[in-house]
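Protocol step 6 of 9: fold each sequence in the batch and record its structure tokens directly after the sequence line. For illustration, a two-sequence batch is reproduced in full.

Sequence one:
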Amino acid sequence: MSRVGKNPVTVPDGVELKVESDRIVAKGKLGELAAPLSDLVKTELKDGEFAVEPANDTQKARAMWGTTRAVVQNMVTGVSAGFTRELEIVGVGYRAQVQGQTLNLQLGYSHDINYPIPEGITIKCAKPTSVSISGADKQRVGQVAAEIRGFRPPEPYKGKGIKYAGEQILRKEGKKK
């Protein structure tokens, strides 16, 4: 039985949630998000709360129960407050800067990496060694952060590379004489 699916999603003021035949649409101050709706769940919206129930007692319906509730919660949070991922750049000469709609990364290669910033995503560089990625869609924010981190993942000997803020890098011992 889903522990996540039992809890209703509270819809805050300023967020409009609509259930259409095959999708759910959330509108708020940060934009509009839509997600597909499965036939395996029943939805109900009343008194500022969104509830999800499984349509039948199959394992797939119970799985979609919690998944649908979590997706709706992320949509409501995204259009009202948004999501942010922080990246840290570690290494001598490694830096980042935003130039228009492009993120310019200098990561020790013979060339700079120009990453085009996707639609709906905001990237800020408060310092040359920190990158802040924010947006309404949790999946897209995480995907962009993973793509940027993939240009130079942290290496285990000196810890150089791009890492998530607060990420612990498992360090290895170097050569011994």
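Sequence two, same batch, same settings:
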Amino acid sequence: MTHPYLAALEGGLIVSCQAYPAEPMRHPETMTQIAEAAVRGGAVGIRAQGIADIRSIHERVALPQIGLWKDGADDVFITPTLEHALAVIAAGAQIVAIDGTRRARPDGLTLAETIARIHEQTSALVMADVGSVADGIAAHEAGADCVGTTLCGYTGERPKSVGPDLEVLRELASTLPIPVIAEGRVHTPAQASACIDAGAFAVVVGTAITHPTTITTWFADAVAR
């Protein structure tokens, strides 16, 4: 039976409300307002980064929230330790996204140990952000409740595709018994639809909805002569 948090996301759009460091929109109130706007547009869930943002969105948006904490610049930086994960959950995230690759974690725990302790200490679910089919299979074996294709093209294991990595998505969706969520470089409605066709349980879109700097660049480059 699918957990209620995941059931609410099935077949829908999750909007990733994040701003890069030093950007004008890097503020919890701004990210919360974007999340509220996403709800009006039909989002079924929110993905957010940082304790302040997660807490603010949790207080004002009545949708399942996938929370994460980016810390560090290299290798494992998406909710890299158990301590980070527990803080994200305490801030209000019902699902915590963690680095789900087979790389060594900064606190010395294995992925399986991290997931087990999260499940033992909280009622939250774990989304493992992976970069390959092998990562996804290992994350499932480690106890993840769902996996996301978030890191495909960013770990050195696979080339960075122009759009979402449909190959990995398709293989994971046909192999794993847990939900596989498409995330990463989903820039158009057509690409989001293709992810569903490839077997995605749900689709995360961030940049194309919530990052005006990048969106402006797309248009500025298109009209430049």
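Proceed to step 7 once all outputs are recorded. Observation for sequence two: DSSP finds ten helices and eight strands in the chain.
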